[in-house]
Structure formats: structure tokens, C-alpha cells
């Protein structure tokens, strides 16, 4: 158990890791493109290391120097490969589409946690393009057999950037035209990067259409991850003042700022600029008196990773908050509805589980207590924020899982793990 003490004030200026979603895509797309590219400020947590490992196994050349990667794509992919995706849902889902499009026979697998996450939701839309994909009772391991693909019109019942991206990565190698339509627009990093690399791609609202395209390698400077910055922004709102530098503020990712607006969090976007096709800014957050909010299904896609943190902030707010339409949380690294409810209640809050979300009755002050990470990095980081903001602090079990997306998270909090 890791002791995390409460703090009366939390202030600081933070340079944060690169965006994980963009790092994954830069590795995969450049690994399959013509030419060489340099990726700077890459997030080299365990998930993106898994993506590098898989792309190397397929034949791409990737040299890593800290947070800088040099990637040379391969025109000749290795066949019959076993791709170890570790704990990374993004890796296995995006590569399922990529590998199917390249007509590679491969087996994609991962650790025990990844093997519990649903893959049928990816295999089914890809099958509409003609992909031959076999799951293990709807989960990994996933077996892909070579099959020429033809473009198709795919409609997703649940908005998912991972599923959309898998279809688009297959579609760029398919014959003809492939379209993906979502009920609500999800994060669009794949579309932006494909366009930058020369793909024939069009976006019309929630519908994305791509034609068979040969990609050119492009250098990518990865902005800091808003999902990582969110924890430090939350501490600023709860306990003082924080400035997070060079944060990506892509409109499909900044649902956390919309949640801040509704909660009454005081923040400013400073030094706004464009980096690699992605808008970035420095975000200053100050201690705020927060009030209850209501979030619906249409709010969820742009803040899906931050919802446990939003629920935690609601526990420190005034009034009763309600978050619904977030059933997607049940199929993350943990059942994040259940684990978020347990987290908040264990530190003295009042959170009720719903089939697709939460009801949180704000108490402004929470006493603290003991929390389990459930080996879910988002739950672990949310718990750390919560314990710092409580009156007495507490203990966090299995905090090391934060390395999946944010290897030096506790260092930046000035907490030494033991």
C-alpha cells in the first residue's frame, strides 16, 4: 500500500508527457508509410512500447531515444507474426484494422486484463469490409487471415475512436471507398494524421470517408496529453493553482474543459498555438467553488477517459450530480463505473452506481481512506488526486499501474513509491 498524504495547498507548473493517443497513431501510421519520420515528445509508457514492439515485429524500423522516435516504414510486412499488445486496448484494436487491411496473417494477444476486453465490436465492422477475423469468444487472442478488402459503409452504434480508427486503417488499404458514421463524433486524431500523410479522406459531421491511399511518412511533434494534464488541473481546482504547459486542446478531446465549465472551475487557455495540425495551449487552473452538474450520452465521447476524475470532482462539489450514457466505462481496464463508485465511497464520498453511470452527492470535504487501483491507471491517478484533496489522505494499493500511460506521474506529485 502506498501512503498518500493530504495537502492543504497544491501549486506548480508542469510539463507533461506527450499524448498517448497521438503517439500510438504516429507509430502505426509511420510504420506503414513510405519514408522516414521523427516523432518528438512521444509518450513511451508501457502501452506505446507495446505498439512499438508490434510494429517492429511486422517489419518497421523504430529507434527510440528517450521521447524521440525515428521510424522507417516497411513495404514488406512479415507474415505469420504473433503480436503481443500487452495491456493496450488501443494497440490491439487499431492493429486489428491495420493488419487486416494489409492482408497479413497474424495473432494479436495481450495480458490477462486485455484478454477480458471486448474485440467483437472491432471484428464485426471490419467483417463488413471482408476481413477474416476470429476472436476468442469475443476477446483476444484475435486471429487474422489474409483476405482482400472492399470498401463498405459502416455505422457504429456506440461512438468509439478506437473502432472508427480500426475501420479507417483497414479502409486505406481496401478497394474502393469506406465510410464510418458515429452517433456522436469521437476524437479525430486518426483523421487528422491520415490527412497529413496524404490519405484521400473527407469528413462530413459524424461521417468519415476514406479511399484507398498510399501514405507518406510525416514528422510529428506530439502535444502534451490533456488526459494526463487533467489530474494536475483537477488539483489546481481543488487545492490551489496549477499551470500545465503545451497541452493538446483538440476539440474532440477537451470534454474535460466542458465539464470544468459546468462545474464552475476557473481556468484560462494561454499561449494558444498549432503544433503538427493539433491546437495546443498552456492551461492555468485556480482553486474553485464547484457545483453539481449533469452529463448525458452526447457529452461522454470527448471526456471518456476523464469521467472517473469528473465524478471525483463532483464528490467535492455542492449538490447532486448525475452522469449517464457512459456504459463504455464498463469495458475499460477495469469496470470504471464500479471502481469509481468504490473509490469515491472509500474516501468518504457518496456515489451511487447506475447501469451507465453515477449519481454523486457532493460533500465538499471528504475524510480520506484506503483505495485499490484495480491495476487501472486511470483509477490509480484519480485516487491519488482524491487522497491529496481529502482531510486525512490515505493508502493506495498497486499504484505502479500508472506506468502504462504516465511513468513519472508520482514523481511530478513529489510522491516516492515504495
Description:
Helix content is 30%, strand content 27%. The protein has 418 residues and is α/β, with parallel strands linked by helices. The protein folds into two domains: 2-17 and 223-412, Alpha-beta prism (UDP-n-acetylglucosamine1-carboxyvinyl-transferase, Chain); 20-210, Enolpyruvate transferase domain (UDP-n-acetylglucosamine1-carboxyvinyl-transferase, Chain), CATH 3.65.10. The strands form six sheets. A four-stranded mixed β-sheet has the order 2-15-17-16, covered by helices on one side. Strands 4-5-3-14 form a four-stranded mixed β-sheet, covered by helices on one side. Helix 3 packs parallel to helix 5 (161-171), helix 9 runs parallel beside helix 10 and helix 9 runs parallel beside helix 11. The protein is globular. The chain starts with a strand and ends in a 6-residue tail after the last helix. The model has no long low-confidence stretch (mean pLDDT 95).
Amino acid at each position: 500500500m502506498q501512503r498518500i498524504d493530504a495537502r492543504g495547498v497544491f501549486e506548480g507548473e508542469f510539463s507533461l508527457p506527450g499524448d498517448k493517443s497521438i503517439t500510438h497513431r504516429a507509430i502505426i501510421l509511420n510504420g506503414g508509410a513510405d519514408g522516414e519520420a521523427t516523432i518528438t515528445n512521444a509518450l513511451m509508457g508501457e502501452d506505446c512500447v507495446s505498439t512499438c514492439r508490434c510494429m517492429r515485429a511486422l517489419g518497421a524500423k523504430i529507434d527510440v531515444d528517450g521521447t524521440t522516435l525515428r521510424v522507417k516504414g516497411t513495404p514488406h510486412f512479415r507474415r505469420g507474426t504473433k503480436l503481443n499488445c500487452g495491456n493496450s486496448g488501443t494497440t490491439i484494436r487499431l492493429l486489428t484494422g491495420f493488419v487486416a487491411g494489409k492482408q497479413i496473417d497474424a495473432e494479436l494477444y495481450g495480458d490477462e486484463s486485455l484478454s477480458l476486453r471486448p474485440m467483437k465490436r472491432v471484428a464485426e465492422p471490419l467483417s463488413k469490409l471482408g476481413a477474416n477475423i476470429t476472436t476468442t469468444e469475443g476477446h483476444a487472442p484475435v486471429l487474422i487471415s489474409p483476405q482482400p478488402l472492399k470498401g463498405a459503409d459502416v455505422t457504429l452504434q456506440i461512438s468509439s475512436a478506437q473502432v472508427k480508427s480500426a475501420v479507417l486503417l483497414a479502409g486505406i488499404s481496401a478497394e474502393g471507398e469506406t465510410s464510418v458514421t458515429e452517433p456522436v463524433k469521437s476524437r479525430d486524431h486518426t483523421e487528422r494524421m491520415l490527412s497529413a500523410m496524404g490519405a484521400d479522406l473527407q469528413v462530413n459531421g459524424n461521417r468519415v470517408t476514406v479511399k484507398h491511399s498510399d501514405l507518406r511518412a510525416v514528422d510529428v511533434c506530439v502535444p502534451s496529453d490533456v488526459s494526463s494534464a487533467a489530474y494536475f488541473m483537477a488539483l489546481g481546482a481543488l487545492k490551489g493553482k496549477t499551470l500545465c504547459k503545451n497541452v493538446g486542446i483538440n476539440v474532440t478531446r477537451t470534454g474535460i474543459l466542458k465539464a470544468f465549465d459546468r462545474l464552475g472551475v476557473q481556468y484560462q487557455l494561454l499561449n494558444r498555438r498549432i503544433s503538427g495540425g493539433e491546437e495546443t495551449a498552456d492551461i492555468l487552473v485556480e482553486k474553485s467553488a464547484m457545483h453539481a452538474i449533469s452529463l448525458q450520452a452526447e457529452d461522454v465521447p470527448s471526456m471518456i477517459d476523464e469521467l472517473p476524475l469528473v465524478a471525483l470532482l463532483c464528490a467535492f462539489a455542492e449538490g447532486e450530480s448525475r452522469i449517464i450514457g457512459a456504459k463504455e466505462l464498463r469495458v475499460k481496464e477495469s469496470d470504471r463505473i464500479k471502481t469509481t463508485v468504490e473509490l469515491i465511497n472509500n474516501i468518504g464520498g457518496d456515489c451511487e452506481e447506475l447501469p451507465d453511470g453515477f449519481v454523486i452527492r457532493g460533500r465538499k470535504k471528504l475524510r480520506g481512506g484506503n483505495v485499490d487501483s484495480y491495476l487501472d491507471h486511470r483509477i490509480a491517478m484519480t485516487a491519488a488526486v482524491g487522497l491529496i484533496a481529502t482531510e486525512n489522505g490515505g493508502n493506495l494499493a498497486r499504484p505502479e499501474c500508472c506506468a502504462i500511460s504516465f511513468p513519472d506521474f508520482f514523481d511530478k506529485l513529489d510522491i516516492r513509491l515504495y
